[in-house]
Amino acid sequence: MRKIFFLLSLLALYFPVTARAQTAVELIVSPPIQTLEMDQSQQANFSVSFKNNSSLPITVRITANQFVSDNQSGIPKVDWKRTTPLVHLNSDTLVMGKAFPFPAGAKQQFFFTATPTRADKDFYAVVLFETADQDSSTTGSGAQIQSRIGSTILVRANNSLVQKGNIHTTLSLPKIIDMFDTAPINLALQNDMNTLLQVRGVVTLKDRGGNPLETFAIFPDVVLAQSSRNLRGTKEFAVGPLFPGVYSIESMVVGPTNTDKVTETLYVLPLRIVGLVLALLLILVLAQKLRRKK
Predict the structure, then answer these.
(1) Of 23, 90, 239, 258, which one is least surrounded by beta carbons within 10 A?
(2) How far does CA 221 lie from the centroid of its chain?
(3) How far is CA 190 from CA 52, 167, 278, in A?
(4) Of all residues in the chain, what percent are helix, strand and coil, respectively (each to 5)?
């Protein structure tokens, strides 16, 4: 089950097809994402299968771009303008960055080698297959049709060389809510290590006596090295409605080197009821004053 969750969490790093202008071109890569380990020579070999799943011949250009996390949702932030020389295409006839013809319906497996500059730090990149074809029959105007699709690679640092760091979490929620409302739970994690990690932890709602009332499992998302990410639960991260009282929300996230716990206090008050009672009292007072004037 943990393996299934891990694969689901990696899907957020997948780069789907993007296209400009209407086109019948459909591109497929496999696998869409893969996690690799560095070998003894500080390299990682991998392959990507590419298919032109359409009836149109195309020209293809293969490039590789490094990326970092957006530090919010975990979605990769790619520098599309700058390619990386650290991913090499293993071919005698094809060169990275140079276009070549690719037939309609054809499928081919391409072999690559990633050569990160550091063995003690993760290396992340997307191998991009991009087309640029003239096809007046499709667009009706001879406009450029451009489509692209990427295969994400996550090269893990050498475990024996990784400098161990800690994880830090921040927990935020409203301090006071009405007994009929819900309070959203906002939890973020900072990964200070040089390698990615899969989140493990829980958030617990407790009463004033410290007794657990509800537990939220944290979804095992992947947090990239030296980045932060907003975490989510396997169910909605929110508490309420609740009876009036004082509650605590405790988050616990387990990392490779430390377990981070954060606790926040939540005050639940009958604000609407109090407001309604005050409004009724005000109406009664005003009504009595009007009677006295008569």
Answers:
(1) 90
(2) 7
(3) 40, 6, 46
(4) 15, 45, 40
Q: Which residues on adjacent β-strands are paired with residue 81?
A: none
Give the integer Cα–Cα distance in Å for 127 and 152: 6
Torsion of CA 62, 66, 72, 74, to 10 degrees: 60
The tokens for 197 are 């990690």
Helix intervals (H) in the chain? 2-10, 136-139, 271-293
Please check whether residue 129 is in contact with residue 60, taking contact to mean a CB–CB distance below 8 angstroms. Answer: yes
End-to-end Cα separation, the chain, in angstroms = 77
- What number of other Cβ atoms are within 10 A of residue 66's Cβ? 17
Q: Is 93 exposed, middle or buried (0-12, 13-18, 19+ CB in 10 A)?
A: exposed
- Sign of the C-alpha dihedral computed for residues 27, 31, 37 and 38 taken in this order: negative
Burial degree of 92 (CB within 10 A; 0-12, 13-18, 19+): exposed
Beta bridge partners of 253: 201, 260
Q: What is the enclosing helix (H) or strand (E) of 60?
A: strand 58-69
Residues 6+ apart with CB under 8 A from 233: 185, 203, 216, 217, 218, 219
Q: In a structure prediction context, what are the per-residue pLDDT tens digits for the chain, which is 294 residues long? A: 555 445 445 545 555 544 443 455 889 999 999 999 887 788 999 999 999 998 889 999 999 999 988 899 888 888 888 899 999 999 999 999 999 999 999 999 999 999 998 888 899 999 999 987 544 444 444 444 578 899 999 999 877 777 678 999 999 999 999 999 999 999 999 999 988 999 999 999 999 999 999 999 999 999 999 999 999 999 999 999 999 999 999 999 998 889 999 999 999 999 999 999 998 999 888 888 888 776
